[in-house]
Write a structure and sequence with these properties.
By secondary structure, this protein is mostly helical. The chain has a domain of about 80 residues: Uncharacterised protein YqeY/AIM41, N-terminal domain (Hypothetical Protein Yqey, Chain: A, domain1, Orthogonal Bundle). The protein is built from 4 helices and no strands. The protein is globular, with a radius of gyration of 19 Å. This is GatB/YqeY domain-containing protein. It holds the Pfam family YqeY.
Length: about 120
């Protein structure tokens, strides 16, 4: 189960709802990507998982019981979340520069606009 651990995540989720209602494709893309990156950072690698692998006669390595396949997610600090958002913004800026060099000004402008959406959460 996912629990918001800070104001940044709550702000990103609220902004996504607003962007969806407004059909703001640039903001939707940037916010979904940032939230996905945050959720991926919280995921526990399979080899670190504390899941019991009991197995049964039908499925090798299957787990048994209600919630047996649940793993505790990593707790990210506010600094961790901000670092992820900053990386997402930086990646877009870098890609925009590359698109600009290739003569793809339309894609570069879209990526810069996405980076600006994310930069709003770094200035807080």
């Amino acid at each position: 189960m996912y629990v918001d651990n800070g104001l940044v995540i709550a702000s990103l989720r609220d902004a996504l709802k607003t962007a969806l209602k407004a059909r703001d494709r640039v903001a939707i893309s940037a916010l979904r990507s940032a939230l996905s990156a945050i959720e991926n950072a919280e995921a526990v690698p399979v080899e670190d998982s504390s899941l019991p692998l009991t197995g049964n006669e039908h499925f090798a390595g299957a787990t048994a019981g209600l919630g047996a396949a649940e793993a505790v997610r990593k707790e990210l600090t506010e600094a961790d979340v901000l670092a992820i958002v900053a990386k997402e913004a930086r990646d877009r800026t870098t890609a925009a520069e590359e698109y600009e060099q290739l003569g793809r000004a339309d894609e570069a402008a879209r990526l810069r606009a996405e980076a600006e959406v994310l930069a709003k959460y770094l200035a807080k």
